[in-house]
Specification:
Layout: H1 3-25, H2 32-104, H3 107-129, E1 135-137, E2 142-149, E3 155-162, H4 167-173, E4 177-182, E5 185-191, E6 194-195, H5 198-201, E7 205-209, E8 212-213, E9 228-233
Parallel strand pairs: 1-3, 2-9
Antiparallel strand pairs: 2-3, 4-5, 5-6, 7-8, 7-9
Helix pairs in contact: 1-2
């Protein structure tokens, strides 16, 4: 029941009591006690009307507060739902875009990329392995021969083409030797990918020229066409 309806009922009750009092007042003196009773009733009705009005006002206030709380809750849920829907839509859009990009890549393009990568890898492996298994290396007008004998006595022969002045320079250019500079020249520790260190292994790479132990270091030995140079683990 709304507040205005309750107040109207209370007002009607008060008016009815007032009319009754007036009617009694128009009678004789015997009715004075009844008039007093009616007056008390009227006061009670007025008090009840005031109490009813106060209760109705509180009820309406509580109803309005509940309605406001409900409205706030609905708005909160609506905002959360909208955010969730927007986020889901963004994810779906991104997924569709990625799928579209993937679909645009043809199988032939993927195969071509895979073949290219495989060929590149094979070329790299061959370039690393080539010195280890012997063969013809370098470019130039002068040709000489170079042999590598490891600790097991396995020999790997090479044919070197070069324009370098020394054997050391020619072998460094094709990555067949590596070492450290010392007061006696280049101290060779690695030959054809195999490292031998006297301090660690108790062995070293011995340098030979045409089958004879060299009288000079590899970086001080001049290149002679047709000659055979060698490094052996000793």
């Amino acid at each position: 029941m709304k507040f205005n309806q309750i107040r109207k009922i209370a007002v009607c009750a008060a008016l009815t009591a007032a009319v009754a009092f007036a009617a009694v007042g128009c009678g004789n003196s015997k009715t004075e006690s009844k008039a007093a009773s009616v007056a008390e009733s009227t006061a009670s009705v007025s008090a009840a009307s005031s109490a009813v009005s106060s209760a109705a006002s509180e009820a309406v206030t509580a109803e309005e507060s509940t309605a406001a709380a409900a409205e706030s809750a609905v708005e909160s849920v609506a905002e959360s739902t909208v955010d969730s829907v927007v986020e889901s839509a963004a994810e779906q859009t991104a997924l569709v875009y990625v799928e579209s990009v993937l679909e645009s890549v043809s199988e032939s393009a993927v195969e071509s990329a895979a073949e290219s990568a495989a060929e590149s890898t094979l070329t790299d492996v061959e370039s690393v392995m080539e010195p280890m298994i012997g063969g013809v290396l370098g470019e130039g007008e002068t040709e000489f021969f170079f042999n590598v004998t490891d600790a097991e006595g396995v020999e790997t022969p090479f044919t070197i083409h070069t324009d370098a002045k020394t054997v050391g320079e020619a072998l460094l250019a094709v990555n067949l030797i590596a070492g450290e500079d010392s007061q006696y020249g280049l101290y060779v520790k690695t030959v054809n990918g195999l490292t031998v260190d006297y301090d660690r292994d108790g062995k070293y790479w011995a340098f030979y020229v045409d089958g004879e132990y060299a009288q000079a270091g590899v970086d001080a030995t001049e290149v002679k066409a047709g000659s055979t140079y060698a490094f052996k683990v000793e």
